[in-house]
Specification:
Layout (H helix, E strand, L loop, with lengths): L1 H20 L3 H8 L3 H5 L1 H14 L1 H14 L37 E2 L5 E5 L5 H11 L11 H5 L16 E10 L2 E13 L4 E2 L2 E2 L4 E8 L10 H12 L7 E7 L3 E9 L3 H9 L9 H14 L6 E8 L10 H11 L5 E6 L7 H10 L4 E3 L3 H10 L1 H5 L1 E12 L4 E7 L19 E4 L3 E10 L24 E11 L15 E8 L12 H16 L10 H10 L8 H22 L7
Helix pairs in contact: 5-13, 8-9, 8-13, 10-11, 11-12, 15-16, 16-17
């Protein structure tokens, strides 16, 4: 009994001692939380940034690797506390990331829906975002996968147009589909005119560029503002005295950090970038308004006029409604100033906003997951990113019901247009930059092939004019030429031009192995994207099949992008196997 009393007494004393030494929960929170004014102060934001770096060691490790891959001479962030990257494959925080939900395109009967119409898309943000997921040890969400952006990440070596009188060339090819022996793939490829190269690289018109940079508190992580600064430094190093650069930042409010400055005054420009620090809320709409005002003031006639928005897309004050932000950018594009988006970061990333703002602003969308991607978009493909050579480019394919029973367009779900939109020059569509290529793939089932998925209607024939017709489809393209921009006015060339050509059986390879290497590689990318989205139409075609097709079709790969694609498929295969062993779904919704 005495022993129990002694134990009870000791326990009571211990509880009392703990109560005296441990502060109350609210007191502890108050002790750890600095005053709000200090958090918003610039000096304290730097201190918060250092704490964030220690809390995000895997992101720092990725950033350091991207610096090494790009061969940059810019100092990377501080060394990670986890130098071996042991936490690299930890699951990412994804619950605040925003993606638009899109249903896969359906199979359509030619007898009922003979015409397919859509806007071209040159964005590549989905591909590099998927790469980020896989490198972090997670399969991407299905809605993060836009197959057309994956396909268009790669160069397929299409022959360019002979001169600039026609801004792009058109290429078609057919071959059996790799995932279904009873259907075929129809590829429509466009290759934009490429500007000549001089001793200092690609020769572009004078540029009026406004960097619009998010410096809010959400941009403190190493893969956000620090990477933004280093990425824009790469572009600055490519510009010359004919170019003009301005810098606008926004957090709770927007402000001009650098007035329009000649591109050869690099020390001044780089110093302005280097001084940027993160802290505060995010009023993106105010920043957009101010950036456009600055770009319009420095407008370059017959030149490149563009705002480059660098952010994670997490707008939380001012105008935050998605449709209102789009309306704002759509109105501003009438000035002749385009808007392109550069996405950064994880956890709170708003992919939907970044992709749609670029679309509304007649620009392009890139997700920057490392310095190597920044070098690709802003240095190696600078002409495609900055110089528009054709606007409002639309594609329309009319299939011949005498030869084609069914079709489906792979990807481009959020670029679909109504049939009547094709001839309506008031309807906005995508832009092609200098040197850009665009690829669209249709899966088609020929009549009598056995590849049909839909039974025909009882009271509708739809056999077409002639069963012996060798024509499979008729291709139409519309675009508005870009030859110059009047000062302060809308772009010229508001009347579209038409290109037409037929697609016949002569363009069909008898087997997939006899198709061009570029078509086979594009098919491997399309298959991979569809598998990541759940594989609705790819039957039992799996990662191993994608790898075999991609390896055999890799061909010329000077930049190593195709090799990297193969490595990503291998990573997805490993993650899929792990998920299957755990009994969890491979791809999250």
């Amino acid at each position: 009994m005495r022993r129990h009393l002694a134990v009870l007494t000791c326990s009571t004393l211990l509880v009392i001692a703990c109560a005296r030494t441990v502060p109350k929960e609210e007191d502890q929170a108050a002790a750890e939380s600095p005053p709000a004014a200090e958090v918003e102060a610039l000096a304290d934001s730097a201190q918060v940034s250092r704490k964030a770096k220690l809390a995000n060691a895997p992101a720092e490790q990725r950033l350091r690797e991207s610096y090494q891959a790009a061969g940059a001479a810019i100092a990377p962030p501080l060394a990670s506390p986890d130098p071996l990257g042991a936490g690299r494959y930890a699951p990412m925080v994804q619950d605040r990331e925003t993606y638009a939900h899109v249903e896969d395109g359906s199979v359509l009967r030619v007898a009922e829906h003979p015409v397919s119409t859509f806007s071209i898309d040159v964005d590549t943000g989905s591909y590099s975002n998927i790469r980020r997921f896989l490198r972090d040890g997670a399969l991407p969400r299905q809605d993060a996968v836009r197959v057309e952006e994956m396909i268009n990440y790669f160069d397929y070596s299409y022959a360019p147009p002979k001169d600039r009188s026609q801004p792009f060339s058109v290429h078609t090819e057919l071959a059996p589909a790799p995932w279904n022996g009873k259907t075929h793939l129809l590829r429509v490829g466009l290759q934009g005119w490429k500007p000549p190269s001089g001793k200092d690289g690609v020769e572009l018109p004078p540029s009026n560029l406004v960097f619009l940079v998010d410096v809010s508190g959400s941009m403190q992580d190493p893969d956000k503002l620090p990477l933004v600064k280093s990425s824009l430094q790469l572009l600055v190093n490519e510009l010359g005295p004919r170019d003009s650069i301005a810098l606008v930042v926004y957090a709770g409010a927007a402000g001009v950090v650098l007035e329009p400055t000649p591109g050869d005054r690099k020390a001044k420009i780089l110093s302005a970038l280097d001084r940027l620090e993160a802290g505060g809320s995010t009023n993106g709409a105010a920043g957009i308004e101010q950036a456009y005002a600055l770009a319009e003031r420095a407008f370059v006639r017959h030149g490149i006029n563009r705002v480059l928005l660098a952010t994670d897309g997490d707008f939380n004050v001012g105008t935050v409604d998605f449709e209102q932000l789009k309306d704002l950018v759509e109105e501003k594009r009438k000035s002749g100033v385009a808007l392109s988006t550069l996405g950064f970061g994880t956890g709170n990333y708003n992919d939907q906003l970044m992709e749609q703002l670029a679309d509304a602003g007649n620009g392009n969308y890139t997700y920057v997951d490392g310095l190597a991607e920044a070098r690709r978009a802003l240095v190696q493909m600078r002409g495609a990113t900055l110089q528009t050579i054709a606007r409002d480019v639309k594609i329309q394919v009319e299939f011949n019901p005498a030869t084609v029973a069914e079709y489906r367009l792979i990807g481009y779900e959020n670029r679909a247009l109504k049939r009547e939109d094709f001839n309506n020059d008031q309807i906005d569509a995508g832009e092609i930059g200098a040197g850009h290529s665009v690829t669209a793939l249709y899966e088609i089932a020929l009549r009598g092939s056995g590849g049909e998925r839909i039974e025909g209607l009882r009271y509708q024939g739809g056999d077409g004019r002639s069963s012996a017709n060798a024509e499979l489809a008729f291709l139409r393209l519309r675009y508005k030429p870009v030859t110059g921009l009047p000062a302060g006015g809308a772009p010229d060339g508001d009347t579209s031009k038409l290109i037409e050509q037929s697609i016949t059986r002569d363009a069909m390879a008898p087997s997939l192995a006899q198709a061009s290497a570029s078509l086979r590689f594009a098919a491997s990318v399309a298959a991979f994207g569809q598998i990541l989205r759940g594989g609705r139409y790819t039957e039992r075609y799996g990662y191993a099949d994608v790898l075999a097709l991609a390896r055999a079709a890799r061909g010329d790969d000077a930049q190593g992008w195709k090799k990297e694609f193969i490595q990503l498929v291998e990573q997805a295969q490993e993650l899929g196997t792990q998920a299957a062993n755990r009994g969890t779904p491979e791809v999250s919704d």
